[in-house]
Amino acid sequence: MSIYYINYIYILVLFKYNWGEVVMKDFKTSKEVEYDTKNTKKVMKILKKSDRGMTITDVAQELKLNRHTITKILDRLLIEKKVNYDEKGPAKIFYSTGTSKFVGRVDQGKFDKLWIDVFNPKYPSEQPFIRVNQTKHDHLIRASSKFRSVGAISIKRRNVITFIRLLKNIARDEFNLKI
Question: Residue 142 — very low, low, confident or very high, per pLDDT cuts 50/70/90?
Answer without folding.
Answer: low
